[in-house]
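During the second year of the project, the team shifted from modelling isolated chains to modelling whole assemblies. The rationale, set out in the original proposal, was that interfaces cannot be judged from single-chain predictions alone. As a representative example for this report, we include one of the complexes processed in the last quarter. Its constituent sequences, exactly as entered into the pipeline, are reproduced here:
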Amino acid sequence: MKRMLFTPGPTEIPTEVLASQSRPIMHHRTDEYRSIFREQTRLLQEFLATTQPVLTLTASGSGAMEAALVNILSPGDEIIAVEGGKFGERWGKIAEAYGLTVHRVTVAYGRVATPEEVESAIAAHPKAKALFLTHSETSTGALFPVHEMAKVARAKGLLTIADTVTSYGVYDLRFDTSDLDGVVWGSQKGMMIPPGLGYVCYGPRAWAAAEKARLPKFYFNLTKARASLEKGDTPFTPAISLVIAAHAAASMQAAEGRENVFARHERNAEATRAAVRSLGLPLFAEVPTNAVTAIAVPAGVDGGAVVKTMEHRYGVKIAGGQGSLKGKIFRLGHIGHYDAGDILRLVGAFESALSDHGHRVEPGTAVRTAQESLRRATAPAGVA
Amino acid sequence: MKRMLFTPGPTEIPTEVLASQSRPIMHHRTDEYRSIFREQTRLLQEFLATTQPVLTLTASGSGAMEAALVNILSPGDEIIAVEGGKFGERWGKIAEAYGLTVHRVTVAYGRVATPEEVESAIAAHPKAKALFLTHSETSTGALFPVHEMAKVARAKGLLTIADTVTSYGVYDLRFDTSDLDGVVWGSQKGMMIPPGLGYVCYGPRAWAAAEKARLPKFYFNLTKARASLEKGDTPFTPAISLVIAAHAAASMQAAEGRENVFARHERNAEATRAAVRSLGLPLFAEVPTNAVTAIAVPAGVDGGAVVKTMEHRYGVKIAGGQGSLKGKIFRLGHIGHYDAGDILRLVGAFESALSDHGHRVEPGTAVRTAQESLRRATAPAGVA
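Output from the structure prediction step:
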């Protein structure tokens, strides 16, 4: 049976990228590989709108998060972590694994923290050196105002590092003109490639902090990774095939154009949200991200059964909730290589499976709503 | 131009495995993925002859080395590291990055240390908790007697961890009946898949030490990896496509039969060494490994030029020396998916390129010698 992933990672991989994975392996200490690796890096820099080095780590996003944290801090340091979901909570867990003191700004799942709450936390914990944020919280579908929070933190002398795991490739992060000092993401989301690579980009303030940071690190030593990158290398054998995939996928995105990629995500997300609302269902997130649409499971409906029916009857794999949200939310991912037709497939399967499990609406409601939303969003001038 | 890798990693990848990489991506939180992951793990356990969990990390071999070290030690600990090449030196560097005290048993590049030298080092440093070894030193082509060294260490109460990066899949490591407490390797060598996965297997004594170890770790927390493995999972998103490759490649090796795989490596290495000797060239390593044959560059020959000619004129990519051995040795890799015909291709290209660069021998010497060595090694009963 044909199946398509609409999970918030891994995401669908373009056929062109999959094809790149079956070519004979290339050695990494060659000019051929180095030129691909350099070009991949340049394309990622363009997408981030940065001149800073983008470091490629052979690790999943969580490994890249650990790298981003340990390279700017020292034993005894205090940090502030903003938590409103499973991934926000990860920052505090990493810091505590290294013996640091963590001050938390915690909001309920689905809600987002405000810059004012961050400002209060900084005032309450004047020794805190850095602020750790999640841009698009994959577990709840909420979008946090990381640029505004970073501005507050910079004014008080803190560094800000944001997890952009599900926002890279979805939003225009404009790293160099933001107050963010570091961003970190993984390969299996907006990059449209398999998992296995993690990325970190530091700004000048984070690099200055890295010179003095004394937390132990070897594999995740970013200073060494930066020095290697200048020679087109990595300190350790890279996941060659995944870097080749990254280059292929980033080339496709560059051909589409970065603004067009971001606009397409906005369109797809808006159409998905409109379809969900047309079914009478509430969005779970207070401020929804364009990466993943989280929806509260309606009373009387078995959420797990809907997810299974979507996959096995309609060929669309979405995600349910994780941890305490298990069975309570649906998560419809639309990060990466999806177009208008894919969104109709997604919301059509969602509506059909809900009907199968007792949440009846007039047939075609969700699909029609999404179709109209997408048609309006791409209307050429003069078309009604 | 057709090119084939005879580098000591990455190694050639079977076409069947490459083909597995272009299938649509699979989600990792599914029964389908879990059954592949479990089966991969079972096949690796069979190859190691162990009932202990084999942990799959999304990282290169060096990341797995760091994981193997930090999970059994605490701040202030002392270790002994045996060093006779670039990879042996890595253990001490990792330990020092975590502030540990390192006592080194150092031998010249190309030589191997003895169990007696290890015994003396243990006597001289009675506080040392663990011994770190390299089985097959990829940078020099030397094979260290890790099983005998581990026996000495166990008698004195030390744990022994061996880097088996280029010996996994080449030698029968027989983990459970050895005195080794841990082994660690990467995916791009004897496993015949691309780089990007690292593996660690601990024995019961290492797991007991892990309960008390206090070095910081998060991404490389092996206790969490073991708990996840029991559910067919990993703590973080795995490099799904590479795990699928590992399953495909390990299935091919299981079909060939583990003893046959090890015997084939022995045959290929022996034929390569015989061919090298027939050219009047000395092996660089005192005790050569069946993974990679290192050869001193003859006086008057430009080693770098030979490596380039082999690649560009004869379609065979080998490695030169690293660091201080640059230009001084050739390294002919024969780890993984190579048969008799591949070895003729390798030594034929080597002989031809040497001739091109002034080291003249009777044409066909190396190929004929390898051919005879391989023919004798596979002779059925009754064939002369």
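Chain B has two domains: 15-255, 257-377. Residues 93 and 102 of chain B are 9 Å apart (CA to CA).
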